[in-house]
Design a protein that fits this description.
- The protein is mainly alpha-helical.
- Among the domains are: about 70 residues, no CATH class; about 100 residues, no CATH class.
- Helices cover about 70% and strands about 5% of the residues.
- The protein is built from 15 helices and 6 strands.
- The strands form 3 sheets. A two-stranded antiparallel sheet has the order 1-2.
- Strand 3 and strand 4 form a beta hairpin.
- The longest helix has about 30 residues.
- It is globular.
Length: about 300
């Protein structure tokens, strides 16, 4: 459901963003490093399509606003990776959700791969997801500088997934409308296109995109020039056929892209076995005997003694 930005919500967003940016700027002037990027009201309002995700994001901004200097201080992992205590806590606090996100992506990718096992692109896509998921099982305190950046990137990919979907969804809508208007479709047909698309969520659209190449081909049909209006880079006849194929096959595509095939249940079973047999090996706890007194104290202050085997 679309968010209704009434006066109260607009004021809340502006207040939180203002406080966040002021807090960030003060910390920057005082010499703190590894700070989050500046927040923008306009960007926030175009990035969410439901109040739950929006409120969760605003809550995170407020959490930063309330940080004491202790939370902004730079900390160092056992592998020499450096970042702020806030960033490290942010990674750890969201690690469970990040792992769950990639687990779901892998399950969906397996379904796609099963429907076309000879597709090199789908095989590479699945392999890439599996590599990312394995990486997330490294003990956080064993991350070097590159590892911290990688964890941050994967965390952002998971938490910003819905925002990315919305951007892609809106881009597709505007792109197809440009194509249809240049081909001479009347407003009634264009309205019908928007009505069809209004029946699916951005996440469902992404599933359709991955499963059916007609969407990718529509994307490729229009290029944005350096100046002037975007133009169709194929013949009007081919473009018209592509648009008509999308419109006439829409219901079938959405049904097939959201339906779970028989392979899904087997995929879930196999992947759970994979997790059970390998995660314990890859995410071994750090032996307390290998840590200095200061390192142990830092871990206790972070609330991360769950990463340590105190009996070893």
């Amino acid at each position: 459901m679309a968010i209704k930005y009434d006066a109260d919500l607009n004021n809340e967003i502006r207040r939180i963003v203002k406080n966040f940016n002021q807090k960030r700027n003060r910390a920057l002037k005082r010499g703190f490093s590894y700070l989050p990027n500046k927040a923008f009201v306009s960007e926030i309002k175009t990035s969410f399509d439901n109040r739950t995700d929006l409120k969760r994001y605003l809550k995170e901004l407020e959490k930063f606003n309330k940080l004491k200097d202790y939370g902004l201080e730079t900390v160092e992992t056992l592998a020499g990776g450096r970042t702020s205590r806030y960033n490290l806590m942010y990674i750890k606090d969201n690690l469970k959700d990040t792992k769950a996100f990639f687990d779901r992506q892998i399950a969906e990718a397996n379904e796609l791969f099963a429907s076309d096992p000879y597709s090199i692109a789908r095989r590479e896509y699945l392999f890439n997801l599996e590599q990312k998921r394995r990486y997330l099982d490294i003990n956080i305190m064993n991350l070097d500088q590159s590892g911290i950046r990688t964890f941050q990137k994967y965390t952002a990919q998971a938490l910003n997934y819905n925002k990315s979907n919305i951007t892609a969804y809106k881009g597709f809508l505007s792109g197809v409308e440009i194509i249809m208007r240049q081909l001479g479709y009347d407003d009634k047909i264009i309205s019908n296109f928007y009505e069809k698309m209004a029946n699916i969520t951005p996440a469902q659209f992404i599933k359709m995109y991955r499963k059916f190449d007609v969407i990718d081909r529509l994307y490729d049909m229009i290029e944005s020039p350096k100046s002037g209006k975007a133009k169709i880079n194929t013949t009007d006849e081919d473009a018209t056929q592509m648009v008509n194929n999308f419109m006439s096959g829409f219901e079938k595509m959405i049904k097939e892209s959201t339906a779970l095939d028989e392979f899904h249940e087997e995929t879930e079973r196999v992947y759970k076995e994979y997790q059970r047999d390998t995660i314990a090996e890859r995410s071994k706890k750090i032996k307390a005997s290998t840590l200095t007194a200061k390192q142990l104290q830092d871990l206790k202050e972070l609330g991360w003694m769950d990463l340590v085997d105190e009996n070893a």
